[in-house]
Structures are given as C-alpha cells and as structure tokens.
Amino acid sequence: MTIGQFLISTHADGLLGYLAVILTISVFNLFWFRSIDRYPPAGQKPVVSVLIPARNEEENIGACLESLLGQDYPHLEIRVLDDQSSDRTAEIARRYCQQDRRLGLIEGKPLPAGWLGKHWACHQLAEQSSGELLLFLDADTRLHPQAVTDAVNTFFDENVQLLSVVPKEIVKSWGERLIQPFFLWAVYTVLPLGIARKVQLDWLTFTIGQFMLFDREAYFKIGGHAAVRNDAVDDLALGRRTVQGGFRWWLVDGTTRVECRMYRSLTQVIAGFSKNYFAAFRYNFLTYAFVFIWLMVVFWEPIIVLFLNQAGMKVDYFPVQKATLAAGLSLLIWGLVYARLKFPVYLAIFYPLTVLFNTLIAVRSFYLTVRGASTWKDRRMERPKIRFF
User: Fold this and answer.
1) How far apart are CA 334 and CA 349, in angstroms?
2) Positive or negative CA dihedral for 218, 153, 76, 255?
3) Predicted confidence band of residue 5 (pLDDT cuts 50, 70, 90)
4) Are 83 and 54 spatial neighbours (Cβ–Cβ below 8 Å)?
5) 111 burial class (0-12, 13-18, 19+ CB within 10 angstroms)?
6) What DSSP string describes 116-180?
7) What is the DSSP pairing of strand 379-380 with strand 375-376?
8) What DSSP character marks residue 315?
9) DSSP secondary structure, 92-118, as one string
C-alpha cells in the first residue's frame, strides 16, 4: 500500500476520531460548565460598578437599565457612557438617571487615534468608577434580578479575578438562528473547561464581553482596556492578559440569569462576525484557513458521500457505514450542545448550513481585514498585520 492509499484509507477513521474527541469534550463539559445560580452566598458584598458603553443603543439601553435597577444586590454603582451616539441613547439613559441615584450618565470624549470605540468607552468608565468589582456589561443584555448577586457569589467561591458568563443568546430571525450559535458551539466542543479551570493557561481562556466581572486591582494591573486598545476581540485578549498576569479566570453558565440579543437581522449578524472571526485567530492565516476547511470537510463530506451513494455513485475511500455514523455523531453533538446552551434544539438539523454560512463569513472577515475595510459601530478599524505562521 502506498502512502497516498494509506492516507485515503484512514481518512474516514480520522474524521470519526475527531468527532469522538469533540463529543467527549462536550459530554464532560456538561458537568464542568457550572451554572451561576448554583454557588453558595458570599460572605462579602463589595460595591460593584456596572459599566455600560453605549453607542446608538436606543433600542436596548432602556430594558438593560430597567433590569439593572431591579437587582437585589445591595451595593451597586451603575454608569452608562454615551459614546457620541446619534440617536436617543443619551436621552433615554438620562431619564433613568432621574429615577435612581445609583445611576449616572457619562458623556464620552472624542475617540483618540489608535483606539477602538468600545475600548475607549470602557477605559473611561473604569477610570470614573469606584467599585471594588467592575462589571462590564453590553447594552443589549438583560439581567435576572439575582444576576449580580449570583455573579458575586460565583466570583468569590471560585476565587478568581475575572469571571465571565455565557448568556442565553436570543436568536429570532433565521439569520441569527443559522449563524449565531456557531461560535459558542465551537468553543464548547474544543475547550475542556475542567482542564482549563485547573491549569489556567492563557490559550485555554475564553471570555465573553457581554458580561465580564473584574477585580478592580487586577483589571488595572493587567493594563485594562488601554492594553488592548486596538484589539477587535478585547474580551478574549483581556482573558489572556489576566492569566498571563498571574490572576485567575473562569467561565460559567449564565443562561438562567443573563440574556442577550446580539443582532437583529442577517445583515447585522454578518457584519458582527465579519469583524470578529479573523481577529479571534490573532490574524494567523494558516491556522484560520485550516480550521474552517477542516470543519467543512468534517460536516459536509459524510453528507455528500451519502448523497452520492443514494444516487448510485459509490465512494470507495469512505464506506457508507462510516459516513452514516459520522452524520449521526454530528447531529448528536450539535443537538447536545444546543440543548446545553439553550438554543432551540431543532436548529441542530441545519448544522451543515450553519458551518457553511460561518465559513463564508470567515472568508469575508479575512477579505475585509486584508483590505482594511472592517468597521465597528460605523467606525473604520485599522488594518492589522497578517501572520502566516
């Protein structure tokens, strides 16, 4: 048997082996991914500064602030920074400020060179806060009345300096349903949370910017948002810097306490992930290309083999029994993860489309980055240096 024949004959087994690995990680994560409402009460309740950067968020800011003002946590300082919005964001926030003295509105300063807008807003918010804990919150989040209390309980019980939660991501349009769950699915299937919690390595961190609870001292020691001022995925960068700085990080299941609708249309979904995907790989082209090509092979090849077999065209290198097993394992994995993350489970049957659409967005993300045409909240982003190794 030649080397080429050997590689072809073991291709199906390698694909099945990969599916077995991510299924194993997904099953173990069922136990390692602990819910935020399962932690015991903390013995201390320091002041928490809730910090919300807001640019053109008139559709979201009111509901976000209402959920914050309804928190049962006793020591809250809430600050909203209006990042030069052109809509009614400031007007709506100001109205809520008049209702509760815990809430304050900050007028954002002009964006300096070398900064991304959200990072500059978060930096200003942190500088003007006073809490021992800093909770960075996106304007499109909604909190259960016990969300902050449970987050503080988790923070101290886990003895961390950065806590992030996975919210329940609301998906309503078909663009959201078919595209948005992918990034959380990808993390859940490849990040063994129990190992990540124990070893605390920077490349085994995952942080979601929609809800990040920092120890104030640790935040400023790692440089805060100033240290990642032009990084398109500041949440991931801050998680890495936290561990690199000798502090502890953890990620918990916040789906019972935090909800977020990131996007409201197909156009917004495509624009949002086009900004993030290549940046999440630190602009490493070879790794980026390999991952998305591999995912297309894993989740499309067995289906194509089965289709060809039904059409009377036998594929010798990929036995139909193994293709059937691969398709069945794929559906099981997608359904299991969707159920755990509280996405509609029926969406799992569309997993080939989800992989395809996200791969196309990944191509678009690369194209826009290379051209220097990526934008964030109507602001042009600087073209980064592309790495090939």
Assistant:
1) 8
2) positive
3) very low
4) yes
5) middle
6) -HHHHHHHHHHHT---SEEEEE-TTEEE-TTHHHHHHHHHHHHT-SEEEEE-EE---SHHHHHHT
7) antiparallel
8) -
9) HHHHHHTT-TTEEEEEPPPPPTT--HH
Task: Tell me the C-alpha distance between 237 and 242, whole Å.
Answer: 9
Domain boundaries, the chain: 3-29+279-380, 34-167+208-264
Going by C-alpha positions, the residue among 260, 277, 264 that lies closest to residue 343 is: 260
**Token pair listed for 121:** 């807003």
How far apart are the C-alpha atoms of 301 and 14, rounded to whole Å? Answer: 13
Q: Which residues pair with 387 in a beta bridge?
A: 284
Q: Cα–Cα distance between 204 and 40 in angstroms, integer?
A: 26
* Location of structure tokens 């001292």: 217
Mean pLDDT of 13-31: 96
Q: What are the strands, taking DSSP E only, across the chain?
A: 48-54, 76-82, 103-107, 133-137, 141-143, 162-166, 168-169, 211-215, 249-253, 258-260, 375-376, 379-380
Percent above pLDDT 90 for the chain = 86
Q: What is the pLDDT, as a whole number, of residue 320?
A: 92
Homologous superfamily of the 34-167+208-264 domain (CATH): Spore Coat Polysaccharide Biosynthesis Protein SpsA; Chain A (3.90.550.10)
The arithmetic mean of pLDDT across residues 328-334, rounded, is 98
308/7: higher pLDDT? 308
Please check the confidence at residue 269 and state whether its pLDDT lies above 70: yes
Cα 125 to Cα 98, 109, 262, 352: the distances in Å are 19, 11, 21, 42
